[in-house]
Records
---
Amino acid sequence: MANPSGTGSELPAVSEGNLHLVTSPHVHFGWSTARIMWLVTAALLPCLAVAVYHFGPGVLAPVCGAIAGAVGTEWVLNRAGRRPDTIADGSAFLTGLLLGMIVPPGFSPVHAALGGVVAIGLGKAVFGGLGHNTFNPALVGRAFLQASFPAGMTDWSTAVARVDAVSRATPLGLLKFGDPSQFPADLATERLLAGNIGGCIGETSAAAILLGGVILVATRIASWHIIVSMLAGGALFGGLFHLAGVGPSPLFHLLSGGFLFGAVFMATDYVSSPLTHRGQWIFGLGIAFLTIMIRLFGGLPEGVMYAILLANAAVPLINRATRPTIYGAKR
Amino acid sequence: MPLRSFRGGVHPPEHKELTEHKALELMPVPAEIFVPMGQHLGKPASPLVKKGDYVRQGQVLAAAAGFISAPVHSPVSGKVVKLVKGPVVGGTTADMLVVQPGEPDPLPADKVAEGAAPPTSAPLLLPPLDLNTATGPEIIERVREAGIVGQGGAAFPTAVKLSPPADKPIDWMIINGAECEPYLTRDYRLMLERPDDIVEGILLIGRALGENVNLGIGIENNKPEAIRVMREAIVKRQAAIKVFELKTKYPQGGEKMLIDAAVGRKVPPGALPMEVGCVIQNVGTALAIRDAVILGEVPRTAVLTVSGLGVKEPKNLQVTIGTPLRDVIAFCGGATADARRVVVGGPMMGFAAYSLDAPVVKATSGILVLSERELKEPPETTCLNCGKCAEACPVNLLPSRLARLAELQRWEAARDLGIEVCMECGACAFTCPARKPLVQYLRLGKKNVRNLPRKER
């Protein structure tokens, strides 16, 4: 309907022809999926820098291999499925980087790339792409590598040669297969914090991981509930067994292997973790319990990966059990 | 003392600085006004005048059509040009009277000779009542007669809200001065400029609700000046009105959130505030009630904020009801070159206007002209399951899950997860990194749940 009064019709910019018609709200916080993915990537840089410092620039080869495999697979699958390009959202890059951080320093870049292919292909794409996967894609990739290249995935010689005059395995490896009386003396907490020990590329320096964790929590990307519950669970279950005379101190549990890295960067993956804070506590405590059980009683020195993957599978169940009570309703 | 608030919510940028220091300004009456018959929730009023009639300011144009309805009065003196179907905010059209302001035709000479009174354009007022002696029923009847509707957004007929059934005793009446919507500063200016009148309005509403009602006003702590001024006005009149200082957080001004923050009661899902003995009224509504009782005024103007980076001179205005949006924007210097969206109401819950001919109505609280700078256009991705929507939802729903169910048209499942409790505050969509249009899905879901057969509900 024309306005017969004719007043104020000189509004060149806003006229019926170009008015935006959308539902409220009309303002937005400003975050995007891409922003989150690239911020997590940035939070991983301290870990990568420490790895390069301790193990040399060679560690970049498997990292780049994993990224290339992941991003390449994402691109190919998008093309094949005639889907819009999703490389820019950063999620495939992040999956590749995460995978690259959890292989040994001397790992073959070609094998790492294969891991990236599996992480995106089997870990994400088969479920329907970003947001639909049940399991953490990077850990799916790592599980594949562990099963396919067990020798390469447990070869710590590159790391150990660089950081350790006395040739030895990872702290957890020593614990499982070595002479337990031998290690506590010079595997002090300071070395676990600094990262000059045997271990996966991104996992050795507790300090660098914690810095990344602070970045993620301060920017409100990661839920501190998952990180804190997993650490509290590790301290609790590790501590109980320690008091009963089984296993190392709870602090050693938290600082060794992939525990911290898993808590900060793997368990906090949005897609494969529970929605509510209550669910996140159950999730974190569950991962910690499974990890300690595998470490102390399983056949492997380390159990974080399988613990998280198992907990991922339980997420729909956890979400169902922890559905929030609607405001004002009786429980 | 810790500030009062609620769980969840978000902190959108406030942008109140654009207008908070600007005093209310009276916008001149435009050349033609468009008065919709339905300016309230409920049945539209039935017109009592016809084309060609001369109507006086304050004259009843249309009568209330039932209990949940409200009469409509003429905002100006002038001639009814026609009854049309015109655009209204919210995407539909509605019956509206077009009135051209002007003086009445002079009486023919023979009528003058007979001694008939000359016609006048002076406003028609209802008989003023006394602040101290007006009784509760008188006040409610006056509110009904004056066609006052809630100014908090829903435009619910106020007289209905003041007449709760006998089995729902009311012990708290709280004025909503939270004004948690960004940009809007209308309630803030009213509190600064008319605090004594607001206090009178609160006392009158209290009397309408009965002897045992506690009175209060809730104001967010980003408006310290309003809190101070209201406290002074209350002390000056020695009124028993409690000022609740609320944490600044959206949607603090939602009825449920305000009640929770002020008196710690939780309104059950699907229930009204009276279920927990509370009645909430907006600052503007309190003033309208006060003016109707003490001055005999009916709503002829709407007080609103015109803001946004897309309008050249943001203002707080008193606008004649029926003024087209186009005229209001023009009065504020017009739109900037990068203006893209006109929103009626606040940016979190307001409606995008599809036509600038839609008129200002009784409950219009703001007109925002938003520019490209404010509307960072979203690339939508799939849901990441990040849970930020659930964290933000003030009524503890899982918006991402409900939106997915709406997408899949699983209405029963959406109902079972409580979709009807959603008040469309927009906190979820505001915070969503995947930029899903969550409110749109929730509205779709709610509409379809309402349409489910009775027994399935």
---
Amino acid sequence: MPSKSAGAEYIKGLWEENPVFRQLLGMCPTLAVTNAVINGIAMGLATSFVLILSSVVVSSIKKLIPSQVRIASYIVIIATFVTIADRFMAAFFPPISKSLGPYIPLIVVNCIILGRQEAFSSKNSVGRSLVDALGMSTGFILALLVLSSIREILGMGTFLGHQVMGAWFKPWIIMILPAGAFITLGILLAVALVIESKTKKRKT
Amino acid sequence: MNLSARMIVVLTTVGLISGSLMAVVGMLTKDRIALNRQQEIEAAILEVVPGTDTSEELFAEKNFTIYGGKNRDGNLIGYAVYTSGTGFQDIISLMFGTDPNITKINSLSILEQKETPGLGAKITDKELFLKFWDNKNTGSALSLRKPAVRSQDELAANEVNTITGATISSDKVLSIVNQSLEKLKQIKQAGKLISEDNDAE
């Protein structure tokens, strides 16, 4: 594996290997909870917490785990951090915990997390895994933020609960329904592909 | 160490450490989570039985709890019923308050719902739906006013407003409240609402 600088390892999560727009991982929470900005941010932070801690733990004990049971061990480690995040939110942020409902426990099966353990943390040092997890988390939060901002503004005329559109604005209810999630994500993916192909052309 | 022994040791250790961590976190947050729930219910009681100083549970069965609200002098000023039922999509949990003689509904509050956002979810909207439940006469079963009207004055004393485009959700809320009202009256008549110490004296 060509070794990159720590900065490049971080930056790649933002765009080049953005978990949502480039790798198409973690689609379930991406589509389900981005109906309001606050939900998107909360989901992004909870996922980041789990991803960062799991990456650190997995990369530090990678030599001890026989490869036959690695997936089982990773899942148990991830589930532990998810449970901690879930209980913590239920105890200290009950309204958010309520509106995210089952999607917090479902972080366990978020492919971004298991994917990073398998593709990165199990092969790299603790420091590099930490930077990689930080980059992926930032990329994920940014993607959720973009998606949930578009959906909340068009679907409810608000941003973080504050009215941003004038009284003339009639909310597009479809945007906060599942269909709106697919439409928005589809358009954003298309935009991401166009930008990517343009930048590639310029490079060659 | 051979491979299978190593696999067993690793998985057991990982499991044990995870389990203990979760147990610790569970213990640390348990009280706080119970407290949150308690506060949520108390806030809802205060909303549906205004002027409540202390409240106590008078009757409880699955998905149906009656709280008695008392004012500062310890007099019973109303009942709050916390119940849930099937909505259009999922369970709707709600609480409504009545006066001590169950002649009128003070107000209604929706605690949990997963109705269609923008349509059925308007059952949580004060201006569009909930305010039309204030001070309704409960002498006979409540009914739904269709099509929707704009102001309280156009509704009869036992009529509540529909949400345009979400008749089913409005109707579900109505039937949950009607059933619970009936049950509340029966329980009160049967004298099962214990600890009304002011009435007994």
---
Amino acid sequence: MLRAHKLAAGEVESHPGANECSQVAGPRLTRETLDMWTSSHPLTRRALLAGSAALPLAPVRAEPVIVASKIDTEGALIGEMILALLEAAGIPARNRLQLGPTRILRAAILSGAIDLYPEYTGNAAFFFAMDGDPVWKDARAGYERARALDLQRSDLVWLKPAPADNSWVLAMRADFADAHRLATLDDFARWTREGGAVKLAASAEFVESRSGLPAFQETYGFSLSARQLLVLSGGNTSATIKAAADGISGVNAAMAYGTDGALAALGLRALEDTKHAQPVYAPAPVARGLIVQSYPQMAAVLAPAFQTLDVQVLRRLNEQIAIEGREARLVARTYLREHGLLA
Amino acid sequence: MSTASLADARRGLRIHVADRVAFALALPAIAAAIFAGFLSIAPNRLADGRPLALWQLGALDSAIAFGLLILLFAAAFIRDETWRSKLLFVAGAGLLIAILLTAGATAYGHLDPREPARRISLGSAFWILSAVGSLACFQSLQRVSRTAKILAPLALAAAVAAIAASDALDALSLTREFHAQRATFASELARHVGLVAFAILLACLCAVPLTLAAVYRENARATIFTTLNLLQTIPSIALFGVLIAPLSFLGAQVPLANKIGIGGIGAAPAIIALVLYALLPLVRSADAGLRNVPADVRESARGMGMTPRQIFWRVDLPLALPALISGLRVATVQSIGLAVVAALIGAGGLGTFVFQGIGEYALDLVLVGTLPTIALAVSADALFQIVLANLRCRP
């Protein structure tokens, strides 16, 4: 499961040296292009409408809310929930789920190509280049900061977050952890210092990023040598989890995400981060200010469901999608119905 | 006994391989059927599966499959061409249909209500046998009439499609992944085709002035081809990425651009990148086609009193048409493949399933994206081949 909540290493990078390319085919050529499949492109019809009626306090907005998500399991799950809730509340919505990685989603909502998508509070640290700030380690304060910054700078509204934390975790095989009495990262650090044979599978970004492995090592006082690391390029935790579960290349610990559904299914257990070395990554719907004005009831429609999404719930639902292979749409709707959140 | 008659006798005794392609196809197919996994049974979507070889399946199923393989092998030795191609087609098409039905039926047999997460996936032997089956069919159509060349693959494709559309394969993991995506599959497929079709249309429009300049303006020629060659060397993911920044800027600065949907992500950068890649095959082949019009043909046209405009429309263009269509064929097939990467910049298309599947380590979901892409590319290619064949046959 790729939780693209960090800017994954494989993401599209734009480099400034090659801007000439854009001038070869003029932008005007694409006008007809886009008109031809207006149905699939969000901006065209809306733009025509917006030309006449997009004053800040436009009365009734018949255009649907374009709901997007990151291209991962949890994005699909939470996105489907949002779609179901909006539809049930009579707010027209259009499905653009699994649109792409974080950077693309952020660019899309800033440019108005999408209206709403679930984002993680800890990512605001990256959006505003403030990853050294301790505020992100506090769920409430981090959310308030993200909300204030985005409202002020980009007219984006962070709606009520879920009480879950999808940060990086270290996971080990449950039987191995039991045998060596490893429950928390303190235990892990002690065991490593005493010469425990750790081999950790992790993404390059986790190993290098300041809030990744270095933060864990600093907080808990241990250090892993290059030989104790199996570094993979992408941010894909399916591969790391599988390596630890099957002991591929001697790996016995894996980088994973807090709400990974695969952990339990493959017999792994996340070690508890008792000292909070990680920023909190709580999922919250982020919407354009304009759309929240058009549908002021939106916050109240989404909040009750988000309130129920804690780590256990998300892990279980993610597992149903990623491991059991059930449809995200069904899993989301079944959950909402079972909890009386959807008629 | 003279040496000549001895050689004759030896030649008569030696077993003669009449069709080397069929022979080369049959051997790896038989090896795969014996040694490789035909199906793989995993406890869930992420865990590794236990392989099941073809001979480990039901006795009747494996007897039919191995019988068809032996038939394929035998066909390689038949000297009579008509009989050989008939047998080859029957063995190839039969193999394709037999393994599909066998895989589907066996998968049903391994379903377990106590283990709802269990996944039955197609193994490497299945893919090798289906490739061998299809290749044997195409090999058998080498020397048949043009109608048969079109009708036989169509009939086979229809049979495979009918099996896929029925519930015969529903127990397979691949089908389950497809069903999980069916809400968006049609729209992503349409988006993919739309991206490619529009990019090709735009590329054709851009290629016209570029080709004319390259053919009739000697000093522009080098610049055009250097630029197009350079563009072709940029890796697709880099080109998609490079377009994000300037288009975002354009979308943000020019209200009109934003209104018509031009921004850093979505269809606009994808189409521009696809157009840039399609230009080289289009312009290069058009240029070659126009330059290869024999000078004496042009000369006689002029002798008949044609104006330069008439020469272009009535002589140059018709003679260059096969080259133009060839360029279009290369550009289209290439764009269908490249458009997969466009999913990474939010343009959607079949790549959505590919990248989603890679992220979830769900290889069957990757196939939900790749198999239709392959089918699209192969059908586009076949379509252009038919057009080309018809052009060449015309007097």
